[in-house]
Structures are given as C-alpha cells and as structure tokens.
Amino acid sequence: MATDARDDVSARSLDEPLYIDGGSHLEDVTAEHEVVLVDFYADWCGPCQMLNPVLEKLADTTDAVIAKVDVDEHQQLAGSFGVRGVPTLVLFADGEQVEQQSGVLPENRLRALIERYTE
User: Fold this and answer.
1) Inter-axis angle of helices 107-118 and 46-61, to 10 degrees?
2) Active site residue: 5, 9, 45, 105, which one?
3) Quick check: is 17 catalytic?
4) Which three-class secondary structure string do you get for the chain?
5) What's residue 5's pLDDT?
6) Catalytic residue among 36, 38, 48, 86
7) Most-buried pick from 8, 36, 63, 109 (CB within 10 A)?
8) Largest CA distance in the chain
9) How far is CA 54 from CA 15, 20, 62, 77, 111, in A?
10) Model's pTM, two decimal places?
11) How far apart are alpha carbons 57 and 18 in whole angstroms?
C-alpha cells in the first residue's frame, strides 16, 4: 500500500502535512514539488508537538509541501540527513537540500525561509 501513497502524491491536496513512508517516497516528493519542508520528528517529543500547529498552518497557507518523517520509524533516513535531535527541519528547493535547522522555529521565521525559495 505504500506504493499507492506515492502514486497519488500529486493528486492529493497538499494543504496539510504529508507523512513520508521511506527514503524513496521522500525522493519522489522532493523531486515532484518545487519547495518541500521536511520535519524530522518523534511522537514523544514535546517541542515537535508544539511545532505541529505551525507546520499545519504553513502547509495550508504557503506554496511549500510540508513533509513529516518519524525518526523512530525511519532511523536510517534520519541518519542519512545527520539528524541528531528532533525536531530537525530540512528545506528542499528544486529537488536539492538548501537549508537545515534544528529545534523549534517561530512561524514567521519558517514562513520567511519558505518564501525565500517560493517567490
């Protein structure tokens, strides 16, 4: 069923965060969309939970796709990005990684970061 999730990425409404199911899925999403903000998170992480409403709002109000990677489910993928703490945010533009930030950032800083690559 994971293949089905990948196949309909472009058909889905991306006004809410998209949950990534592995490395190839992340590659597909970053290749298909101009700007993708990836949130490496964990369910047990308090700061990650605080960031969720901000990311949901950004998904709904910006041109970026917000993708979420559960570091407990995808440890190898998180490791390949050098994730040492959560939340870690990685921004892709035109399929290339352009930014990486650790910790909770305020909405205005995240919005400015996204707009740098979408305008």
Assistant:
1) 40
2) 45
3) no
4) CHHHHHHCCCCCCCCCCEECCCHHHHHHHHHHCCEEEEEEECCCCHHHHHHHHHHHHHHHHCCCEEEEEECCCCHHHHHHCCCCCCCEEEEEECCEEEEEEECCCCHHHHHHHHHHHHC
5) 42
6) 48
7) 36
8) 36
9) 13, 18, 12, 23, 10
10) 0.88
11) 13
Q: What is the reported pLDDT for 61?
A: 94
For residue 38, indicate whether it is catalytic: no
Token pair of 118, please? 């979408």
pLDDT tens for 2-41 read 444 434 444 344 789 999 999 999 999 999 999 999 999 9
Letter for the amino acid at 106? Answer: P
Judge whether 55 and 85 are in contact, CB under 8 Å.
no
